[in-house]
Write a structure and sequence with these properties.
With about 180 residues, the chain is of the alpha+beta class. It contains 4 helices and 10 strands, in the order αββββββββαββαα. The protein has helices spanning about 1-15, 115-120, 145-160, 165-175, and strands at about 25-30, 30-40, 40-50, 55-60, 65-70, 80-90, 90-105, 105-110, 125-130, 135-140. A 10-stranded antiparallel β-sheet has the order 1-2-3-4-5-8-7-6-9-10. It is globular and about 50 Å long.
Length: about 180
Amino acid sequence: MIKFKKLLLCFFLSTSLTVIAEEAEQTYGDWEVGSFIYNKTPFSFANTTNDSNSTLGVICMESSDTCMPYVVNRLSCENDGKYPALVSIDGGIASIEMSCLIIEDRYLFLLPDSQLDYILTSNSFGIAFGTNIGKFKAAYFSLAGSAKAVIAAKLTIDAIPSSKSKSSSDKESSNFKDTVL
């Protein structure tokens, strides 16, 4: 499952500057929603960027039932490494384990799927990472509009006709012939 998440996130982040957007981005509170196609596969996303240019978001793919949460910040990590973090939400604090993915000098932290529930139901989201010098780096994000944005991202991907269903319907339609009754 983690490799699948990393593949999706690679597609999203490595092409974020060069993909053609399907629709204009939508804004919900502090969150933006958009979509793109990469290698004939549709994706949608919802994210927010804080004042220190850290990003919290989710990415959705047509073949997945859920959207995957991620954080991008300026900390480094080892590819496929596992990293503990503390997450703060309205209801308290939880410890999590993230995985790391490196793409062209970008260090991406993939959050456990359970964090999506917090993004949908809380007002703020904070995350504290341990650094290699024995200190913590914290990032805080507004979740104003996050639930609507994530729902919009999911609805966007669900509304895009599946490339698999297109190819199967193309095959089916090629089997039909005009028939006079």
